[in-house]
Amino acid sequence: MQSLRYVGKNLFLEKISLKNFLKKNKSPFYIYSENQIIYNFIKFKNIFKKTDPLICFAAKSNSNVQILKVLSKLGAGVDVVSGGELLKALKAGIKPKKIVFSGVGKTEEELQVAINKNILLINCESESEALLVNNIGKRLKKHVSIGFRLNPNIDAKTHKKISTGKAENKFGLSIKSFKSFLKKINSLKNVRLNALSVHIGSQILSETPFKRTLGVMQKLIMELKLNLNFVDFGGGFGIDYSGKDKTLNLTNYSKLVEKFAKKINCKIIFEPGRSIIGNAGILISKVQFIKRGSKKSFIILDAGMNDFMRPALYDAFHKIIPISKTSSRMTGAIEFVGPICESTCKFGVYKKYQKLNENDYIAITNVGAYGSSLSSNYNTRPLIAEILINKNKYRYIRKKQNILKLINS
Fold it and tell me: Fewer beta carbons below 10 Å: N end or C end of the chain?
């Protein structure tokens, strides 16, 4: 993350000293670098500039309307997976013809909104969904542009809880089922098959599964002689969480995609989320208490798993760094934990760490994706604030939830 650095002993995000920032802003909170988001998006766009894809940001990774507005100004579209995300995208100024609606269990109400708004694509994930879309289209007297999500049975070699392209996963249609349904699609007078879609998983660090997916898709499209407007390759591009991860070579992948697009003669859609927003955010938390255990010390934070779920849900590693550096060290191992009454409310174990005191502050890094969007009111805790920084200026893009409104709702 280029925007996060130490100046002397103090941590800065862009041009703001977080130590000084915390004198007026109460933790815990999410804070994002707007210029890091912009940098990430432009870098992604430039890597694929020869293909000129439609880049639909995956709103599920971070659906804050103000962040969607930043991306909208850069020309981004949005991939949504719920009616709520669809309405947020429209509120952010995303044009309907840049919105793709994915998801395995869309409701009739959600589909009706999408059809009425004339979005670019509804990516169907079952025969039943396509039939429902056709029926709604008939009732509304509209012809609906759809894609079909395929399950290519490809192992993305990622965490089992974020793998989506294997036969055992719930997503998409098998190739066999798609071929069978293709024979019936001409009888559906209110849908047009304009795209095929595939998304094999998240946090993928190797180009091998993507290369295999390209091969499967090209073979299928040519075999069936499909005339498509779009092929949607989803997202899943991993980032470096540890500082040591070998990440995907997107330049190599872009060359493969370019060849594919020329061969099939269609527009490419990508749905990046984590690779755009992941390293642009940090979670600031205060050390509430330090408690000595039999084998390690517990650093008890004011942020909990309800605020940041990824370590509990995925055993995910996020580097934790101090707001102010010191030369002294803690004795023995430490574990950063939160206040939630669950054993899984923890954020990381360190064998060596600098000296921390109660009321000091730390930053959990690379939390821009699936941080705030996975947060909840568990233990009746208010949703925490989100702040967006641009150089030396900042603004609240979500205020901390009012506890009285929460308990009276």
Answer: C
